[in-house]
Amino acid sequence: MDKVVATAEEAVADVPDGASLAVGGFGLSGVPNVLIQALYERGVSGLRVVSNNCGALDCGLAVLLSAGRIARVTGSYIGGNKEFARQYLAGEIEVEMIPQGTLAERLRAGGAGIPAFYTPAGVGTQVAEGGLPWRYDGSGGVAVASPAKEVRDFDGTEYVLERGIRTDFALVRAARGDRHGNLVFNKSSRNFNPLAAMAGRVTVAEVEELVEPGEIDPDAVHLPGIFVRRVVALSPEQAADKGIENRTVSV
């Protein structure tokens, strides 16, 4: 039952080239930076990533992206990541953009064993009708476009069929975790981390505070340990290393 491994390098040692990864985080909140850095140092490439965004400010997945280690991204937000946008438009990376709520539910459904579901999000758009550019050819043309999806009428309202997502591995970050893998997330980091953890066949969690089993109130657990295979305890310095994406000043 003790799922703690000594280092982040050991925790991701079996992630191969071309693996699919569900990665938690929302902006710079709750991003498993230490595990991502361990993957970078291993030289793993050709990764197929499922994440809300693909890193920012040279943090998180931006480390792998800038090194050309990511082949495909399924996400909902490019945002201010200029390198992500450049690679996408240059045809260097394949990108499946889907509505943010749909992405969250596709991860949750995959983790819950639900193969597909219907949602009204995207009906009447290219999300349902197909034709969204997944990969450009580098000259402004579309090399790979999204396929059309099934649309059905339920009680007079149209819904599009979306498939659940399962990945080979998942990397997440939690505020607290015990040796059994039970996790607690802090505020916005709870948006995608639990869902990504559910979707991974092998889920690795880096935790800012490692506690003994029983120290977390069962009612406070956000993700049960059944979904987690490995736990890495961060050092105080690693736990405190958190970036700020947008600084604002008020007077």
UniProtKB/TrEMBL annotation:
The keyword ATP-binding does not apply. Keywords: Transferase. One of its GO terms (molecular function) is transferase activity. Gene3D superfamilies: Glutaconate Coenzyme A-transferase. Pfam families: CoA_trans (PF01144). The keyword Transferase applies. Belongs to the 3-oxoacid CoA-transferase subunit A family. NCBIfam families: pcaI_scoA_fam (TIGR02429). This is CoA transferase subunit A. It comes from Streptomyces broussonetiae.
